[in-house]
Recover the amino acids of this structure.
């Protein structure tokens, strides 16, 4: 076949040609599509499930809705006067109904309408690469659409839960985070496997809703955080009646009506449901990576603009969980904004992408904020003390009891919490901050700004916190440092 004939055949096989295809309409996909389309690029978004993705329907929003009512009740019980007014416990049915309202009953109509209002074309179905700058979409009705892409294909397919290799586990119909956040009733007994963010949040949510919860973790809780974070959360979980078992793991799981979990210490736990929260992996299987020289199901390597390594030409991008970078919705959306902007810029011609420009997700390496929405909350950004030392920094660590701040004492009687500031002494800048305590999440952005801006401590000293707010902890940290 001649070159001309090949070109003619390729043209016949293409149903449409567009500038950009975004595979995945979750929060990350929506952001990259919107940013790319703002300059007039023709953008198609493909989604096989619900527009809005994991965060909207099975993660961030429903999980926090499950937690919030319990937090509000606990906060009231810490205040004399308010405590006496609390005459009952949570109404689980009302909490679940409120949770469901945040998912719109798992109906994505409003989010699909938003895509349309932003000038984005939605194709419902499964997408896979079929070669360089080619995407095939199999619709929900079985029809296929072949798309040629002028500028970029963006993979925003997210991640999927990982089940550990435990005999019987896969056959025991375990919950993942999806089932745990969308359950219609409170399980009488719940076993949670995993001491990470999902595990501790959902253990507390369901315990406060009335479930008898057992939490299993091979090591301490919240690994990767400062040690005191996991310790304070473990204390709080136990106070809520959660049976926190550290240093154990399941050896066999069976289900015959109830779930029976045999543990490494030879004990047995029985429950009505078993939630596995042991991590997630990028969703790269079955999306056609092998057609462009990559491994089906393999990991992706991206630069700070989101461009995927190992592919000829600058056209394949990945953002969010699938990229292998930070698995947090807000950080994925940040990456997506940079990627969408750089796609639009590169469509117009060559563009420079220095660190900290609008085209690069530089903060992924320096200042990633994260909140664990337990009670107490854990709010952390930047490096832990151990990570800073491993990076070769001359580190000074400053700790302060948040309960000693006037604003915290007003917030709750007997306020328990701790703050840690990690300082790079050579540059005299903050490189990491951790807050643990009631309602500390709203303190985190100030810490993020200080780290991203590399604000010198002598200048940070002049950021005067209002009195009496919990933010006065910043003054106390700087005073403890020696300013």
């Amino acid at each position: 076949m001649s070159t001309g004939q090949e070109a003619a055949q390729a043209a016949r096989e293409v149903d449409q040609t567009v500038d950009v295809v975004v595979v995945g309409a979750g929060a990350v996909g929506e952001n990259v599509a919107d940013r790319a389309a703002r300059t007039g690029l023709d953008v198609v978004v493909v989604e096989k499930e619900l527009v809005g993705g994991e965060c909207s329907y099975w993660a961030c929003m429903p999980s926090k809705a499950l937690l919030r009512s319990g937090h509000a009740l606990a906060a009231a019980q810490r205040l004399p006067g308010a405590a006496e007014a609390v005459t009952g416990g949570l109404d689980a049915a009302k909490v679940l109904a409120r949770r469901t309202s945040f998912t719109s009953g798992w109906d994505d109509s409003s989010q699909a309408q938003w895509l349309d209002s932003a000038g984005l074309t939605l194709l419902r179905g499964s997408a896979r690469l079929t070669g360089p700058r080619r995407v095939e979409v199999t619709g929900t009705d079985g029809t296929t659409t072949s798309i040629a892409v002028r500028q970029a294909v963006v993979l925003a397919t997210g991640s999927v839960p990982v089940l550990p290799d435990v005999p019987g586990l896969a056959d025991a119909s375990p919950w993942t985070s999806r089932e745990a956040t969308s359950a219609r009733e409170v399980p009488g007994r719940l076993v949670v496997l995993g001491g990470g963010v999902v595990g501790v949040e959902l253990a507390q949510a369901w315990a406060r809703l009335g479930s008898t919860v057992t939490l299993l973790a091979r090591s301490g809780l919240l690994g990767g955080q400062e040690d005191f974070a996991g310790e304070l959360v473990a204390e709080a979980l136990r106070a809520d009646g959660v049976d926190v078992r550290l240093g154990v793991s399941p050896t066999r799981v069976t289900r015959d009506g109830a779930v029976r979990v045999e543990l490494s210490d030879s004990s047995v736990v029985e429950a009505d449901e078993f939630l596995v929260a042991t991590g997630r992996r990028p969703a790269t299987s079955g999306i056609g990576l092998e057609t462009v020289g990559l491994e089906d199901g393999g990991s992706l390597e991206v630069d700070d603009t989101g461009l995927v390594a190992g592919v000829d030409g600058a056209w394949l991008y990945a953002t969010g969980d699938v990229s292998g970078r930070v698995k947090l919705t807000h950080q994925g959306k940040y990456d997506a904004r940079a990627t969408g902007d750089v796609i639009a810029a590169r469509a117009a011609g060559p563009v420079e992408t220095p660190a900290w420009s609008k085209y690069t997700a530089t903060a992924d390496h320096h200042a990633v904020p994260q909140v664990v929405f337990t009670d107490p909350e854990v709010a952390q950004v930047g490096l832990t003390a151990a990570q800073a030392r491993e990076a070769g920094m001359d580190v000074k660590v400053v700790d302060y009891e948040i309960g000693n701040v006037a604003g915290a004492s007003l917030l709750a009687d007997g306020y328990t919490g701790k703050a840690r500031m990690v300082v790079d002494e050579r540059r005299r800048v903050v490189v990491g901050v951790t807050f643990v305590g009631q309602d500390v999440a709203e303190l985190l952005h100030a810490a993020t700004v200080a780290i991203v801006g590399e604000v010198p401590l002598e200048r940070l000293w002049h950021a005067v916190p209002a009195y009496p707010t919990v933010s006065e902890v910043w003054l106390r940290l700087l005073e403890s440092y020696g300013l």
The radius of gyration is 25 Å. The chain has a mean pLDDT of 96. The first helix runs from residue 3 to 13. Residues 169 and 253 are 5 Å apart (CA to CA).
